[in-house]
Amino acid sequence: MRTLIAPGRRRAGYTITLVITTIVLTVVFVVPLLWVVVSAMKTAVELARVPPTIVPETWTPGTYAEAWDLMDLGRYFVNTIVVAVGVWAVQLAVDVPAAYALSRLKPVLGKGILGMMLLTLMMPAAVLLVPTYLTIADLGLLNNPLALWLLGAANAFTVFLLKRFFDQLPVEVLEAARIDGAGQLTMLWRIVLPLSRPILAVVSIFAVVAAWKDFIWPLLVFSDPARQTLSVALQRFAPDTPVNLLLAGLVLSSVPMIGLFLVFQRHVLAGLTAGSVKG
């Protein structure tokens, strides 16, 4: 039975819809970013003008260097990098073995443990702030990056993603390694991890981005201004800093994460789709 729409028209309609959707999404996501980048190069007076100017009357790209020096952003970049790298390393060190155990070792209560871990994703983060803060304070870890590293160690979503990927790995390869005398740690290190590069890239980017943009927990933990991260420091400078300099600081703080995604976007897409189709 023939369809009412000819194949050529369906193809044209699909192309038009795809183009329109791409343009709309590009405008929605890119225009605000460009607006902030350009607005940071306006003077504070021009930035406060109503209605706003689209293109700066006087371009002042030196705003970025001025913001870097005024707010001492170099110090806070280092603090944030230390936090993000530590969260990433500790999270992988804990979550990869946990996901491998749930996927391949098949513990007796494995499904129940995974279910309880996923249940924590349904809990509002604010509910856990007070008990977590009191625990960290009792351990004497305030103003210490360990407070953020330990909090990001056990991530239920990361464990779930890794387990789903490990479930799709070919059993034949692991069985052959077991016959050759390889233990579980050897198989994890020499076989599973090399095959899991796509999903490891995904969870790594998720971990780094989450640690980089986190605000509430670093605000509670780092009372010492010299140890604060970028997100907390920019909020602290906001009341006494000209708006154009503050926007420049926000742009500078976003550049590493945007660059990270642009460099590893193929790995992210490959990791999210890997293992989705079996056979």
Automatic annotation (TrEMBL):
Q: Which PROSITE patterns match?
A: ABC_TM1 (PS50928)
Q: Tell me how this protein sits in the membrane.
A: Multi-pass membrane protein
For this record, the Gene Ontology CC terms, alphabetical, are: plasma membrane
Q: Kindly report the protein's main subcellular placement as a broad class.
A: membrane
Q: Which organism is it from?
A: Saccharothrix ecbatanensis
Identify this protein by name: Multiple sugar transport system permease protein
The entry's localization annotation reads: Cell membrane
Q: Which family does it belong to?
A: Belongs to the binding-protein-dependent transport system permease family.
Residue span, ABC transmembrane type-1 domain: 77-264
Q: Which keywords does the record carry?
A: Cell membrane, Membrane, Sugar transport, Transmembrane, Transmembrane helix, Transport
Where do the TM regions start and end? 12-38, 76-101, 113-134, 146-166, 187-212, 245-264
Q: Which GO biological-process labels does this protein carry? A: transmembrane transport
Would you say which domain of life the source belongs to?
Bacteria
